[in-house]
Amino acid sequence: MAYYHNNTIIYLNGAYVKAAEATTDFFGQSLHYGYAVFEGIRSYQTASGETKIFKATEHYERLKQSALALNMPYHWEPDELIEATYEILSQNNLQNAYIRPVVYAPANMSFNPNNESYIMIAAWEMGLFLGEKLLRVMTSSFQRPNPKGFRIEAKASGHYVNSILASQEAKAKGFDEALLTDMNGYVAEGPGANVFFEKNGKLYTPPTGNILPGITRATVMEICKELNVPVEERLFTTDELKQADSAFFCGTAAEVIGWQSFDEVTFPAKWENTIGRSIQQAYKNRVTEAAKGELIKK
Ligand code: PMP
C-alpha cells in the first residue's frame, strides 16, 4: 500500500512539509527501543459533504495521556493538533482518511529521559469499511503484555511488536485475525481492536486494566445505552466465548466487524440478526453524521 506519494504533505513539528523530503534521526530512542506513542484516528465525509474527524478530542487526549504515561515531554493542546490535522486533510485532498499522529523522542542511545519530544501527523485515504466479510479468529499463542511490565493503557509503539507477532501468527495459520488473552489467561483484546460477545440478548466485554481502553469500545457502549442493550464488563475465558451467540471486534480502523468463527467454532446466530449488526449500522450513522459540537471542516 502506498501511504504517500511525491506530493503528500505531513505535519512535522509545526510545519507542513513533503513526506518524501521529511527526515528523522537514525539515532532516535524511538526507532531503537520502540519508545514512542501514537494514535489511529479516522475522518469521514459526512452525509452533508463535510469532513469530520471522528472523536478527534478523545484521540488527542489519549495521545497526551500515552506520552505522559511514558514520561515523554508533551506540550501540545488537542485543539492545535486538531487544527493541524484538518489542515493536512485539506492539503492532501482527503475526506475519508486514516490519520496517524506519532510522538517520538530525539537522538538518545541511553535510557535517560529527554527534554523534548517531536510530533508527526500523516494521513492517507481509507474509505468507510464496515466489512461484510465475517472474520475467522483464533486464540493467539501470544498473550498481551503484562500490565506490571508495561503501561498497557498507553498506545505505545513498543507494545505493537506483540500485536505484529499475534497477527502474523494468525494469518500464517490461515485465520483472519488473532485474539489475545491477558497474563492470567482471560480474554483481553485483538492485536488492534477490542472484543465484545453476545449471549442471550446481552453484550459482554473485558474490563479495562489489561487492555487498551478503546475509543470505539466507548462508542459501542454509548450506542448500547441508546439502544437499551445491556452490556457487562467482566473477565471471561476463551471457552465461554466459544459458547456465545455472536462476537465482534471494534476499533478505529476495524470499525465494528463481526466474527464468523472462533477457533473453528462457528457462531450460531446469523450476523444479520445480531446486536453487533445493529451496533455496526448505528456506528456507521454516527461517524458519518455531523454531531452537535464536533469540529467540522467544509
Ligand atoms: N486495542 C488495541 C491493542 C488497539 O491497538 C486498538 C486500536 N487503537 C484498540 C484496542 C481499539 O482502540 P480504538 O477504538 O481507540 O481505536
TrEMBL record:
It catalyses: L-leucine + 2-oxoglutarate = 4-methyl-2-oxopentanoate + L-glutamate; L-valine + 2-oxoglutarate = 3-methyl-2-oxobutanoate + L-glutamate; L-isoleucine + 2-oxoglutarate = (S)-3-methyl-2-oxopentanoate + L-glutamate. The keyword Chloroplast does not apply. One of its GO terms (biological process) is L-leucine biosynthetic process. Its EC number is 2.6.1.42. Signal peptide: none annotated. It is an enzyme of class 2 (transferase). GO terms for molecular function: L-isoleucine-2-oxoglutarate transaminase activity; L-leucine-2-oxoglutarate transaminase activity; L-valine-2-oxoglutarate transaminase activity. Its cofactor is pyridoxal 5'-phosphate. PANTHER family: AMINO-ACID AMINOTRANSFERASE (PTHR42743), AMINODEOXYCHORISMATE LYASE (PTHR42743:SF11). Belongs to the class-IV pyridoxal-phosphate-dependent aminotransferase family. This is Branched-chain-amino-acid aminotransferase. It comes from Niastella populi. The gene is ilvE.
